[in-house]
Amino acid sequence: MRLNKTLLALAISTLMLSACSDTDEKDTSLTDGSLNETSGINDASTSGLNKGSGMNGSELNGSGMNGMSGNGDYASTLGPEFNDPNNPLSKRTVYFMLDSSEVMPDFIPVIAAHAQYLIANPGQKITLEGNGDERGSREYNIALGEQRAKSVSSMMKIKGVSDNQLNIVSYGEEKPVAFGSDESAWEQNRRVEIVYQPK
């Protein structure tokens, strides 16, 4: 019986000391301001985002994510010819003049190379993403981006690419690669991107 009372007294003492210890720690940290609901959150959430460590436009737009570009293009995973700067398959952007959907002569070999690849690989599909610069109405730029994509699509079909290998989408002015309101930015945004899809 005495042993039980002694054990009970020890257990109660241990619980009280433990409770006091927890209370002391919280009280101390609360009074010195080191523990509050936002201190841990602020440290973790803002350090990476505000400093922008490693996140810039080239990484968002370029390759580097498992061999894919930021727009979901799987071309760099298809073969070394897609990464060889001397091979026209490495070029997957067709640029246009202002208010035009006519393919410029410089880009005909690029379109022909992609068409030839698609003919040789009938299971491969691509999306032609038409874009425009910021000038003009939203509706106009959507229509112009679509027309640009259709121009590239038509050239590929003439070469022999199947309809079911080609998808067309227009982003209008909604997906610029260059931000700015000058000719340098605008000429980079007037484009069709040839985006390879997973098989």
Find the count of extended strands (DSSP E, 2+ residues). Answer: 4
Structural class: alpha+beta
Largest β-sheet summary: 4 strands, mixed
Shape descriptor: globular
Largest beta sheet: strand ordering: 1-4-2-3
Instruction: Output the radius of gyration.
Output: 30 Å
What report would you give on this structure?
By secondary structure, the chain is of the alpha+beta class. It has helices at residues 2-32, 39-51, 57-61, 108-120, 138-159, 183-189; strands at 93-95, 126-131, 166-172, 191-196. Helix 5 links the parallel strand 2 and strand 3. Helix 4 packs across helix 5. The termini are far apart.
Summary?
Helix content is 46%, strand content 11%.
List the helices and strands and how they pair.
Layout: H1 2-32, H2 39-51, H3 57-61, E1 93-95, H4 108-120, E2 126-131, H5 138-159, E3 166-172, H6 183-189, E4 191-196
Helix pairs in contact: 4-5
Task: Describe the structure using short key phrases.
single chain, 199 residues, alpha+beta, four-stranded mixed β-sheet, 4 strands, globular
